[in-house]
Amino acid sequence: MWLWDSNILRYYFGEKHPILHLHLKRISRDEIALPSVVVAEVLRGRCDFALKASPSQAAWAHQQLLQTQKLLSHRI
Fold first, then answer.
1. Could you read off the pLDDT of 47-73 as tens digits, one per residue?
2. CA distance between the termini of the chain
3. pTM for the whole structure
4. For FRET with 70, which of 9, 13, 52, 62 sits at 20 to 30 Å CA-CA?
């Protein structure tokens, strides 16, 4: 079982780190889990950003929050 932290999520979904992606191709999706602390940390960061966003950033910030919720609700 591989437990991912928030840094792995950021590099996997956001920054598309090439070395990480090569390594993860060797791991079955069934072997990956997200600890609830990591899920909470990621959602809190997105919520904080949405709450503090300027009017010009608000729509994008809320879109990112919804996208993150969708990603976390599905298996990686």
1. 999 999 999 999 999 999 999 998 888
2. 13
3. 0.75
4. 52
